[in-house]
Specification:
- This protein has 332 residues and is an alpha+beta fold.
- The protein is built from 8 helices and 10 strands.
- Strand 1 and strand 2 form a beta hairpin.
- The chain binds adenosine-5'-diphosphate.
- Adenosine-5'-diphosphate binds at residues 227, 231-232, 235, 260, 262-265, 273, 279-281, 288-294, 317.
Length: 332
């Protein structure tokens, strides 16, 4: 009678699951003294469809330890299985998208690199022939012509700066990761040394707190600090400039702050300024290429940190960036 039951039960287990289920059952029944059996398999329902079931049973054994009966309960887990599978499919799609995005980013970076690299050569030609024209035909040129040449030379120079900045930007993404201990205090001191002539000439007041050691790429962190302090100096008002460099310690990160009392930024540009080529001023007012903060963002993000700004127009700006306290795990 029991084997009849067993026979009908086995017939309804999905053909692909049956051997695994029987093997598992036999092992527990015959080779162990366990009192508990459980398994997951597909089981044929009355409507002809297979359900995913989770089956549990309490094994009753006789005095010799032989399994004689089992009292069990079976639970239909088809819905759970389905959502599990959907989740898995979703995950796969997501992973695919991420990979595609990474690939297109890399392609874009490669394009920026190649374009900026290849543009340098023709630009050098333009500049040098303009200069030759000015030198060798100087007597034949009138003031107007000389002025036009000056404009053209100025344009070429500006383009050269753009190309070099773009190269720096795209290189920031392609260089190999090297994370080593970096003393932010000496990074700051190096930066201040670079700007020392202007700091002295423009009587800029500096407030500097001691800065901690972090993990990262020294050159990139130097560039980051240089761009932020360079901007603080550049976007000043006609009033005495004060720059404060500060650092706050949080649970698992440091938050650095570079504060100025310069012209400030309207809140609607807080995000925009971190995008390549986004500038808020015509070039004759404040010169620049609009790449500096995009480079900063890239550097900080490569260090697993964040960068953001708070500012009030006409009052000043504070640029914040965070860096993790522990060395970032190297990506494969
Ligand atoms: P660039 O200085 O070459 O224009 P950035 O990417 O460094 O490029 O900056 C983008 C824009 O953000 C600048 O054009 C300027 O309008 C604004 N900005 C950056 N730093 C400051 C600052 N400290 N104070 C006011 N505005 C700033």
């Amino acid at each position: 009678e029991a084997s009849q039951d067993n026979y009908f039960w086995v017939k309804r287990v999905h053909p692909e699951d049956v051997s695994k289920v029987i093997e598992n059952r036999n092992r527990i029944f015959l080779e162990t003294q366990d009192q508990y059996w459980e398994d997951e398999y597909r089981f044929l329902k009355a409507n002809g469809e297979y359900a995913h079931v989770y089956d549990r049973g309490y094994i009753i054994r006789n005095a010799e330890g032989k399994a004689v009966r089992m009292i069990g309960a079976s639970q239909d887990i088809s819905a759970m299985k389905r959502s599990e599978q959907q989740l898995q499919e979703l995950n796969t799609t997501l992973e695919q998208r991420a990979a595609e995005l990474a690939a297109s980013n890399t392609e874009l970076e490669r394009f920026a690199y190649v374009a900026s690299h290849d543009l340098q050569e023709p630009l050098r030609m333009v500049s040098s022939f303009l200069q030759l024209l000015e030198k060798q035909y100087n007597e034949k040129l009138d003031d107007k012509a000389r002025e036009y040449i000056q404009f053209a030379v100025g344009g070429a120079e500006r383009m050269k700066k753009l190309i070099l900045d773009l190269l720096t930007y795209s290189r920031t993404g392609t260089e190999k990761e090297v994370f080593l201990p970096v003393d932010m205090q000496s990074v700051l001191e190096n930066t201040l040394q670079i700007f020392a002539p202007r700091i002295e000439k423009e009587a800029i007041t500096l407030w500097v707190k001691p800065l901690p050691r972090v993990y990262g790429n020294q050159m990139q962190l130097q560039q980051l600090m240089q761009n932020l302090i360079g901007n603080a100096i550049k976007y000043r008002k006609d009033q005495p400039l004060e720059i404060t460099v500060d650092c706050m310690e949080e649970a698992d990160r440091y938050v650095f702050a570079v504060r100025d009392n310069g012209i400030g930024i309207s809140q609607r540009y807080f995000e925009k300024i971190f995008i390549v080529f986004q500038r808020l001023h015509p070039n004759n007012q404040y010169t620049g290429t609009g790449i500096g903060l995009a480079i900063c963002k890239k550097i900080v993000e490569r260090h697993y940190g964040q960068i953001w700004v708070t500012s009030t127009e006409g009052v000043g700006s504070t640029f914040y960036f965070s860096l993790p306290k522990t060395p970032p795990e190297k990506k494969a």
